[in-house]
Amino acid sequence: MMAVFRKELLENLRDRRVVVNTLLLGPLAAPLIFVAIIWFTVQQAIDRAEADLELVVVGADHAPNLLRWLEQQGVVVKDALDDPEQAIREEKEEVILRIPADFPESWRSGRPAVVEVLTDRSRRYAGTSLARVEGLLQGYSRQIGHLRLQLRGVPPDLSQAVRVQTIDLSTPESRGGLILAFLPYVVLITVFIGAMHMAIDTTSGERERRSLEPLLINPLPRWQIMGGKLLATTAFALATLGLGLIAFTWALKLLPTAQMDMALNLNWKVALTAFVLVLPVALLASGLLIILAAFAKSFREAQSYLGLVMFIPMIPSFWILINPSRLETWMTWVPLLSQSILILEMVRGETIELVWMLTSFASTGALALLLAIVAGSLYNRPGLIFGDG
Amino acid sequence: MIEARNLRKCFGDVVAVDDVSFRAEDGQITGLLGPNGAGKTTTLRMLYTLLKPDSGDMTVDGIDPRREPLAVKRRLGVVPDSRGLYDRLTARENVRYYGELHSLDRATIDARTGILAQLLGMEAFIDRRTEGFSQGQRVKVAIARAMIHDPKTVLLDEPSNGLDVMSTRALRQYLLGLREEGRCVVLSTHIMQEVAALCDRIVIIAHGRIAAEGSAEQLLARSGERSLEDAFVKLIGSDEGLLA
Questions:
Q1: 155-194 of A, contacting B, C-beta below 8 A
Q2: A:B CB pairs within 8 Å
Q3: Which residues of chain B neighbour A221 with C-beta distances below 8 Å?
Q4: For residue A282, what pLDDT is reported?
Q5: Residues of B in contact with A220 (CB under 8 A)
Q6: In this predicted structure, which of A184-193, A203-212, A254-263 has the lowest mean pLDDT?
Q7: A263-291 tens-digit pLDDT
């Protein structure tokens, strides 16, 4: 069995395309793309929040005090436009403040004076500017309101019956967990990708090269031949997983987490625990892919089958996305789902109970062994050897 | 020594091998001669344990392949119809892999590989990757890896398929050498000249049945024909498949 294992590894490591695709691009691409996207988003958000707020004001003459106050707050007021609606639609401006002509009259008579903020909420980039403008206007409104009450001898606090205080107990780690929510998916898909090429090459590839029949004539029980192939595939999957986790842990250090007010709890210890947690998944993925690939008549046919299987590691992540709920014990028994949830808990900085790890490991391992046994019996079918059925 | 008695194998409704019996003695080359699709490959596959017969008996050196497939496989050297090599490995690594699958130690493998490389004339290309090998070179590697454990009994399925004249001559020399060493050699072929040049005993198979059995002289005498080709056509009853 070890002879088969060694030979399959040697043969596939000789193939430069396999090495580059599976061991290099596979594990490295996801973290790099992810870090680049987050970095870009964060930088943009920071830029927008810190940049001077430029605001076009239509009808500025109607509210000179408001204008002066806005300028004191650091807003750069720009000249009015002829057609503000058009300017928003054409994305020339993100937010426009319009002060109607009846503003002074309402103001003097003590009625709420209407100001209009024009924007297009479907343009997500406008969100930051809109929030800043709205915040400023409300601040102004509250300040004037308080002054009016004080002039009449009324304590301003009377106007506020309830003050809402939301106490956010999230930790930097748990906020970082929101960003790392995709990590379980990436980890699982990395394992499947790592196993895929090897699973095809050692089974349908072997049949396509017409080397399967002579191989099986060797005096070795057939399950051992399959066992060697399964081990080699698992080893490849684990190598990919390990490299992927290392790449991720390293890449996340490049992110400006302090400015994001969060901590990304993916250190070497968490990565190692995740690796151990996903160990049985590697065997599971290898077994499943090998079983499917063994039935395919050619490399190409196998690739098209296995492409569909790539949806499997997505399922738990989608399930969590659609149905975000607390960790319950039964979840730790479900292969793939248990790993997804436990990894999520870990990157949120929660402590993982050993029992959960064990149930996840045991249930996934049991299913993986079952698949391995099925795979081991496959070469007892003449149809799979000679390709005639 | 191989003995087959009343072997029968069906695939669905198709009877591939029907009541095939023959003996192959040590120190002889036995040829299974028959047109394409006659059941030669199926017969060999039953002998080298990849197919189970529906009925009938067979033994290799007195061992039943169905009961002790691993023991039979250890005694057999097989060059099957499929001769796929691993293109990313060198010829030597291909041969070594099979040696390891036979649980031979490294020193034995290296020594045997050296002998086989010399016998088969593989020295020039043994350390090259087999990608891009000619048919002749591929057959040599396939033979070397089948012989790495020094088997007493050798089965070859259409060994000269796709070989040029020089390679075929070399192959015949090698097979005659195996006979000299007292091994039991069984080869299947649809080429008349091959059996005539090599075989001590000829088993003619057609439509899954044994049409005739004996030495070349015996077959000629029985059919009353003067050439082996005519004898063959007469014995199997048609020339179907011969031109394929």
A1: none
A2: 74
A3: 70
A4: 95
A5: 70, 101
A6: A254-263
A7: 888 888 899 999 999 999 999 999 999 99
Confidence of residue A218 (pLDDT cuts 50, 70, 90): very high
What architecture (CATH level 2) is domain B2-83+152-236? 3-Layer(aba) Sandwich (3.40)
Distance set, CA A104 to CA A66, A108, A113 (Å): 11, 6, 8
Report the top-level CATH class of A52-159. Answer: alpha beta
Strand B153-157 with B76-79, pairing: parallel
Q: Tens of pLDDT along A301-345? A: 898 888 888 888 888 888 888 887 778 888 889 999 999 999 988
Contact (CB<8Å) B97/A7: yes
Cα A114 to Cα A96: distance, rounded to the nearest angstrom: 14
pLDDT in the model for residue B97: 96
d(CA B210, CA A149): 117
- Nearest Cα neighbor of B142 from B47, B73, B78, B198 is B78
Does position A178 have pLDDT exceeding 90, yes or no?
Answer: no
Q: Residue A129: what pLDDT?
A: 85
On chain A, the residues whose CB falls within 8 A of the CB of B11 are 388
Q: In one letter, which amino acid is B76?
A: L
Q: Which residue from B48, B51, B84 is facing A211, i.e. has the nearest CB?
A: B84
Boundaries of every domain in chain B: 2-83+152-236
Chain A closest-CA separation from residue B223 CA (Å): 37
DSSP B81-115: S-----TTSBHHHHHHHHHHHTT--HHHHHHHHHH
Rounded to the nearest integer, the mean pLDDT of chain A is 87
B49 chain-A contacts, CB cut-off 8 A: 217
In chain A, where are the structural domains located?
Answer: 2-42+172-386, 52-159
Cα distance from A309 to chain B (closest Cα, Å)? Answer: 28
Confidence of residue A387 (pLDDT cuts 50, 70, 90): low
Q: What is the pTM of this model?
A: 0.82
Q: Would an 8 Å CB–CB cutoff place A216 in contact with chain B?
A: yes
**Across A49-53, A235-239, A374-378, least confident range:** A49-53
Residue A381 phi/psi, 5-degree rounding, is -95, 115
Closest CA to B50 of A200, A387, A301: A387
ipTM > 0.85, yes or no: yes
Show Cβ contacts of residue A148 under 8 Å, excluding neighbours closer than 6 positions: A110
**Token couple for A351:** 């402590």
Bridge partners, residue B24, by sequence: B2
Nearest CA in chain B to A11: B88
Best mutation target among B66, B97, B150 (most A Cβ atoms within 10 Å) is B97
B145 close to A (CB below 8 A): yes
Which amino acid makes up residue A332? T
Taking 50 as the threshold, does the pLDDT of residue B244 lie above it?
Answer: no
Instruction: Enumerate the β-bridge partners of residue B205.
Output: B210
DSSP, residue by residue, A188-209: HHHHHHHHHHHHHHHTHHHHHT
Residue in the structure block whose two tokens are 């011969």: B242
Contact A219 B83 (CB under 8 A): no
